[in-house]
Amino acid sequence: MRATFFFTALLAAVPALSASIAKRQTLARVVTHCTKANDVALTFDDGPWVYLYDISKALVAANATGTFFFNGNNYGCIYDADEAKRVLYAYQKGHQIASHTWAHLDLTTLTWDQIHDEMWRVEQALQKIAGVVPAFMRPPYGNYNDLVRQASYIRGQVLATWDFDSEDSVGATPAQSEALYTQIIGQHPSNILALNHETYETTAHQVLPFAIQKLQAAGYHLVSLAECTGLPAYQSVGTPGTRDSTWTCQR
């Protein structure tokens, strides 16, 4: 009788186990470009940082929307009062906020559990600070493998890279970044998914105003990544939390 019960229980568990394995092996979608004609998504990595306000103001003044991929603990701790204020400011100004993982580590060098920790910690922070769970994640350095995609799928996320790089993070001068924007605009692709970094003063104050003017003059609409792909920006939208002892980058 005991053997029969065990065999029956084992058979009942097989479908659930198979479903779990299948989910673990499913790869998240990777977005490398916009899909809507004449749309440009200006995205900004590595914040929230001090230049976010000026970036937002330049976008809002141009009736444009940006997408900010935030880290949890890179240039600063996302729970610090000034950092958290920037996150909420960007969201309340109508920009899309998304995950750039916790500490800007190369996810392809991490274990399964470490990958989830890098994703979960910043998702939790964005939910506490702004009340949202992001549906987009940009892997640091644009690096990902199947393990990263599997983890992202389980977490309900789309991976986002880019098809245009202003090269601000690899040492391009403002003039060089502007030349790259001029070059891509001259080719007039149907759409552009542009990589920038909000941590550079010259990006905020020189390159961005130049890019906005040139892109709009060429007839492009400057929208969020969610809008230019037709995908939801968030998995859930709720009420921001109240600051307590868990709002810390200390483990």
Automatic annotation (TrEMBL):
<dbReference type="Pfam" id="PF01522">
    <property type="entry name" value="Polysacc_deac_1"/>
</dbReference>
<keyword id="KW-0325">Glycoprotein</keyword>
<keyword id="KW-0119">Carbohydrate metabolism</keyword>
<keyword id="KW-0732">Signal</keyword>
<feature type="domain" description="NodB homology">
    <location>
        <begin position="38"/>
        <end position="223"/>
    </location>
</feature>
<keyword id="KW-0479">Metal-binding</keyword>
<dbReference type="GO" id="GO:0005975">
    <property type="term" value="P:carbohydrate metabolic process"/>
</dbReference>
<protein>
    <submittedName>
        <fullName>Carbohydrate esterase family 4 protein</fullName>
    </submittedName>
</protein>
<keyword id="KW-0472">Membrane</keyword>
<keyword id="KW-0449">Lipoprotein</keyword>
<keyword id="KW-0378">Hydrolase</keyword>
<dbReference type="GO" id="GO:0071555">
    <property type="term" value="P:cell wall organization"/>
</dbReference>
<dbReference type="GO" id="GO:0016810">
    <property type="term" value="F:hydrolase activity, acting on carbon-nitrogen (but not peptide) bonds"/>
</dbReference>
<dbReference type="GO" id="GO:0098552">
    <property type="term" value="C:side of membrane"/>
</dbReference>
<dbReference type="GO" id="GO:0005886">
    <property type="term" value="C:plasma membrane"/>
</dbReference>
<keyword id="KW-0336">GPI-anchor</keyword>
<keyword id="KW-0961">Cell wall biogenesis/degradation</keyword>
<keyword id="KW-1003">Cell membrane</keyword>
<dbReference type="GO" id="GO:0046872">
    <property type="term" value="F:metal ion binding"/>
</dbReference>
<dbReference type="InterPro" id="IPR011330">
    <property type="entry name" value="Glyco_hydro/deAcase_b/a-brl"/>
</dbReference>
<feature type="signal peptide">
    <location>
        <begin position="1"/>
        <end position="19"/>
    </location>
</feature>
<dbReference type="InterPro" id="IPR002509">
    <property type="entry name" value="NODB_dom"/>
</dbReference>
